[in-house]
Amino acid sequence: MVTQAQRWVVLKFGGTSVSRRNRWDTIGRIAAGRMSDGDVRVLVVVSALSGVTNELLAIANGDDVPGRLAGLIERHRGFCVELGLDPDAMLGERLAALEALGTDARAAGRPLAWQADVLAQGELMSSTIGAAYLRSQGHDFGWCDARDWLDAIALPNQSEWASRLAVNCRRDADAGFGTRFAAQPARMLLSQGFIARHADGGTAVLGRGGSDTSAACFGALLGAERVEIWTDVPGMFSANPREVPDARLLARLDYAEAQEIATTGAKVLHPRSIAPCRDAGVPMAILDTERPELPGTRIDASAATVPGVKAISRRDGVVLVSMESIGMWQQVGFLADIFERFRRHGLSVDLIGSSETNVTISLDPSENLVTSNVLEALAADLAEVCRVKVIAPCTAITLVGRGMRSLLHKLSDVWATFGQERVHLISQSSNDLNLTFVVDEADAEGLLPQLHAELIRSGAMPVRAAGVFGPSWRDLAVGRPQRPASWWVGRRDQLLARAAVGTPRYVYDLATVRDHARMLTGTAAVDQCFFAIKANPHPAILRAIAAEGFGLECVSLGEIEHVFAHVPGLSPRNVLFTPSFAPRREYEAAFDHGVTVTIDNIEALRRWPEVFRGRTAWLRLDLGHGEGHHAKVKTGGVAAKFGLPLAKVDAFLDAARDIDLRISGLHAHLGSGIDDAGHWHGVYAHLAGLADMIGTVETIDIGGGLPVPYAPESPLFDVALWRAGLDEIKASYPRYRLVVEPGRYLVAEAGVLLLSVTQVVEKDGVRRVGADAGMNALMRPSVYDAYHGIHNLDRLDDTELTEFDVVGPICESGDVLGHGRPLPAATAEGDVLLVADTGAYGMVMANTYNLRALPAEDILDEGGIE
Ligand code: LLP
């Protein structure tokens, strides 16, 4: 019978968690806390003090044995003193045993059994010290020797080395195991990770990372409630946070996903530790010793299945072997033949890609690949049956997550990111958990942050799935920057009153527009800011922005005429015309208005020389790459219609000279919604270098494209970083006037779209809220899969929420404003919905499709509503 006292929680603490006194205080606190909540007993499994196992390994290899032993003895005595313990009384016996190993008769021959005894000393000492310290602090802790409980088992084909120094442990407990273990008197027990009993009665060790596995085996044998792995990071992340600071904490995983992530890169949990818990149905948690209050990563069988990419990882040093054979087609035994040769050279194959004439396989980096000439020997051997090419070093980039097969359509931008690199091999596993790309190691530099952002943007990594993803590493490291509450929260009554007049309706808050304008005008390096009026040409907004000292950037003659009509006293010097494939008469009219004109192709000069003869204009360049929140807003690179390619600059300048056209400015706008705060400073540097060559340039315009944090997980744009980058680069090239021309940044967050709920409908399990306008009023979600927050303004404080798709009344399946949005369960006909951050590219892109009326527009200003 399982009594209350036999419910166990196993806690494992690694080297850094046991090497300081304050960490042991934490261990004591955590263990006591676990015991008090739920009447369980606690087993703590510890590693050796940090660095000790490395020293012991050197000793086991016979390297400076006396010196290293002396060092270890001193280190552990010192640690006892730090903990206020008497080293002789408490650790004397163990230190003597450690010393004796150095003079042991076996030391000369270093048999494996002796090596295991040496390696085991680290855990034996740390656990002895820890148990004594915890007892001295009043905790009821007993100590037990893991070797009395964990038995090494022999596996078929195991080398002698592995059967002593990298063992597996028995996980099926005999009938009396639980009772015997529970018979130990202390309520809490401390034992060692990494060590086990060999069948011959001697010591065996589990190999590197073995402490996690020990804890998992104890958990399985005891049928524990939980195994908690306490470490120095807050859990498993969606990517290595050192490489991708925006990596998200994975709050919940199933065993298979955790296994895949641990195996393909994450170092935080040893891959071998998952199977024991999975097979015994014991939940696992990864937690941060420094910050025990954080939720960590939970791994169990009942994790809800949320399809999507959970993590992305990379393995460097991968070797590809490409084997070409014309004789392979339908030839029986070809693969058997080549794989036999890999076996012969002791190489284990990881990924495989094959076509009719080629088989390409990958080899993970391993000791013998680096230290021996095994590859050469293998290649020579294979050359007997095929043409061999070794491609190295490569990097394998793996996307891990459930339901990979059904996600491929969401990965188009991810493919595009890879598209610029040479992908040697793609492999998708049939367990539907893993998609791996192999590229040259050099090409993988800087790729992961980009891919991670793309996965989130495309929806392939479902970071909004409640309970699955936690905060980002960056937010955990610096504390999540508090987002200021949106302006509309405080204007709710006013907005409801406007909605009562009629919906759909855009409402803009001028104070927010001014705030954003001032964020940019305060930048010392920037000589002039233009507002790209295409984002929102509402006259009151244009006047407010012009009053802040901004010029206005126009893309059409219509916009030019609009600004002169609505902004009194506007000087043509403050108007910039940046057309795209505009008709000739728009250029003529622009010159007549006296505004600055930007040209982006040679053909215009050649066809209409008289339009440009003797004029001064700016040249818009395509720097060869585009950026932005979606492929459709990237305005650089071969796929984009904008800008003169760099290869044609000389020809353009010749053509300009022929018609006496003077180029006084260089311009590049490479996309919209660019997260990388360093982008603009790079554009300035590039353009300034070109300007130096051209000679007539006075002004450099680095475009717009500043991002807006639409989604809850979007990082806030770091204006200070943007400024600092511009200040720095301007200091290097001070001779040019620096111009920027953002649109979205000034107006997006200032606008909301108010809609009325028409119907609430459930169909095949999907609940939909219908609104009186959809893609006709706001195109961004259907065109760019853009995210906008959607709120029920009538029921802002409701806490009972249900997921709804929010749809419009347009006869298109793409008429969806948001998928799976948590909205009040009580949402009903007549409620007012607020679609947030719609001040940019909202009303101006609205249309009358299905002959639905355009939305109304209101301006909120200090004086009230305009
Ligand atoms: N300058 C030029 C030459 C542009 O083409 C644009 C935007 C801007 C400046 C302003 O970019 P912003 O700072 O607003 O990102 N409808 C899309 C955006 C299209 C942007 C077109 N050009 C959207 O809703 O995301």
From TrEMBL:
E.C. numbers: 2.7.2.4
Family stated for the protein in its record: Belongs to the Orn/Lys/Arg decarboxylase class-II family.
Record carries keyword Lyase: yes
Entry coiled-coil feature ranges: none
Class of the enzyme per the UniProt entry, highest EC level: transferase
GO molecular function, one term: diaminopimelate decarboxylase activity
Pathway as given in its UniProt record: Amino-acid biosynthesis; L-threonine biosynthesis; L-threonine from L-aspartate: step 1/5; Amino-acid biosynthesis; L-methionine biosynthesis via de novo pathway; L-homoserine from L-aspartate: step 1/3; Amino-acid biosynthesis; L-lysine biosynthesis via DAP pathway; (S)-tetrahydrodipicolinate from L-aspartate: step 1/4
NCBIfam families noted in UniProt: asp_kinases, PRK08961.1
UniProtKB keywords: Amino-acid biosynthesis, ATP-binding, Decarboxylase, Kinase, Lyase, Nucleotide-binding, Pyridoxal phosphate, Transferase
The organism's place on the tree of life at top rank: Bacteria
ACT domain segment(s): 323-393
Cofactor(s) required, per the database record: pyridoxal 5'-phosphate
Pfam families cross-referenced by the UniProt entry: AA_kinase (PF00696), Orn_Arg_deC_N (PF02784), Orn_DAP_Arg_deC (PF00278)
Protein name: aspartate kinase
